Amino acid sequence: MASEVDMTQLTLAWNHRWPSCRPVGYELRNCARESWVRFHSLPEAKRYADNEVERTQLLRRHNVVLQELASAVAEPSELLVLTYSWSSSREVTLRDDVAQFNAPDAVHWKSVLLDADADGERWTHVHVSQVAWHLGALDELLLSVADDVTWADIAPADFEWVYHPYDGGADVVSTSTSTVSALRSKYRDWLSPHDHGL
Predict the structure, then answer these.
(1) At what angle do helices 177-186 and 52-70 cross, to 10 degrees?
(2) Where on the phi/psi map is residue 184: left (φ > 0), alpha (ψ -120 to 50), or beta?
(3) Do 98 and 65 touch, CB atoms closer than 8 A?
């Protein structure tokens, strides 16, 4: 961890920026639809990279957008990396091996009840670490997410924006609609051709 994360401050920052949203990356596009954009990581919405050329292109797209977002953060910039574990109770469980390898110093922040039914409860446990941002700093983690072997989200300490990579691209939400509009315009070739943006 680049520096110790203040969990109380983290919660205050999240509640200030996203009071009606939970820190669950895939929920954010529905929770903050008006300030959301999705970028595909490969041409023609190809989901997985098959070779080194495609992996290089995938990483380039992730890094370009992250650099645009991080450029507003004071230098030297540190970004939060959120990784996850899941369980059938509130008891915190270990993260997968890939998450532990890429964010070894992560600390449990909070647990979120995703749903509950006759079959029981389903919880996600959010773990947070910090990294000093530079181009390529998160390449291994981004490739692992792109291969659908782990989950992660990236954000500045004040949660002004959240970057949610997935196997196929990334969702961006920002409290600044102008930031989202600028990204959408600048990287329009990476957008979905469909009106719904997926």
Answers:
(1) 150
(2) alpha
(3) no
Give helix 52-70 / helix 139-146 axis angle, nearest 10°.
120
Q: What SS3 class is residue 121? A: strand
Q: Tell which phi-psi region holds residue 136, choosing left (phi > 0), alpha (psi between -120 and 50) or beta.
A: left
Radius of gyration of the chain (CA): 16
This prediction's pTM = 0.93
Given a cut of 90, whether residue 175 has pLDDT beyond it is yes
Does residue 65 register a pLDDT over 90?
Answer: yes
Smallest CA-to-CA distance from 152 within 162, 160, 161 is with: 162
CA 169 vs CA 113, 145, 192: distances in Å: 26, 10, 10
